[in-house]
Write a structure and sequence with these properties.
This protein is an alpha+beta fold and 276 residues long. It is built from 5 helices and 12 strands. The radius of gyration is 20 Å and the shape is globular.
């Protein structure tokens, strides 16, 4: 009986080790890059790529990306960032035509992107879409949605509802990350509450989102915009408006945090590390 008990324990340990070994360790970066414009007005795609390389990010969700516009020298920004970061797979989702090219968001991946769809969102003062990709991570499928909700509360709510409705029947693991222009319900009031920009303390929208998805709490400094003093010229405060949500994802561990050092945009990059 004693030998049998040891054998059973050994088998259980082997299964645990096997599960740990087969777990996928994935690092996701969400970053509003402000079309790669630096504080001094120069355009630097390399600075964005350097962040990706330094962090060894596997999936990168970028907001405010230019595609062949005159203001950014007619460059395909997403393709160039992917090339500089030595990452093969990427998809662009256009919001609208702009300045001779297009403006929108993009997703770059170390793993094959096997499907993508640019989800149309309700019309508002500025057209928006939400880019969804399906990524094949060593045989596991993961849906990744990039988000950049509009600044006004009414538009944010309608856009969030459209995204939730689009994926509500999917059973695939889901990560939704990006610039929600919305602070958590427990945030301290800032200059943006009640302002025309309205990155407000928006309990209604955050409660709606967390009723459908799980929001990942961040470790450490919880400020994402503006990214630092040089981007916050009036010195009136900063807010937490970039977030990651998950659904249908059985994770072994998770860690989310903002990158504080080396500011290259008006937002700080959001890093989410998961083991699943």
């Amino acid at each position: 009986m004693f030998i049998k008990s040891i054998f059973v324990t050994f088998i259980v340990l082997l299964e645990c080790i096997s599960n740990i070994a087969s777990a996928e360790l994935i690092k996701i970066m969400s970053f509003n890059i402000h079309h790669s414009e630096q504080h001094d007005g120069t355009i630097s795609i390399a600075s964005i790529a350097d962040k990706i390389i330094t962090e060894r990010a596997d999936i990168i969700v970028l907001q405010e990306v230019d595609d062949k516009t005159k203001r950014t020298n007619n460059v395909d920004q997403l393709a160039q960032i992917a090339k500089l970061a030595n990452l093969k797979y990427y998809k662009f989702g256009a919001f609208f035509d702009y300045d001779g090219g297009q403006y929108g968001m993009g997703i770059i991946s170390r793993y094959p992107i096997i499907d993508s769809y640019n989800i149309p969102l309700p019309d508002g003062p500025e057209p928006r879409t939400s880019l969804m990709t399906t990524v094949n991570i060593n045989g596991k499928k993961l849906n990744v949605i990039g988000v950049h909700l509009y600044r006004s509360l009414e538009e944010r709510i309608l856009q969030a509802q459209a995204i939730v409705d689009y994926v509500k029947s999917s059973t695939l693991p889901l990560i939704v990350t990006g610039d929600f222009n919305t602070t958590p319900s427990n945030s301290s009031p800032t200059k943006y509450v009640n302002s025309t920009i309205d990155h407000g303390k928006d309990n209604t929208l955050m409660q709606y989102l967390t009723s459908h998805w799980t929001r990942l709490e961040k470790i450490g400094n919880k400020v994402s915009f503006p990214s630092g003093n040089m981007w916050d010229d009036d010195g009136e405060g900063q807010v937490e408006i970039d977030h990651t949500f998950i659904k249908n994802l059985d994770i072994n561990s998770v860690k989310a945090h903002y990158l504080i050092k080396g500011i290259v945009s008006d937002h700080r990059p959001l890093i989410t590390e998961i083991s699943w």
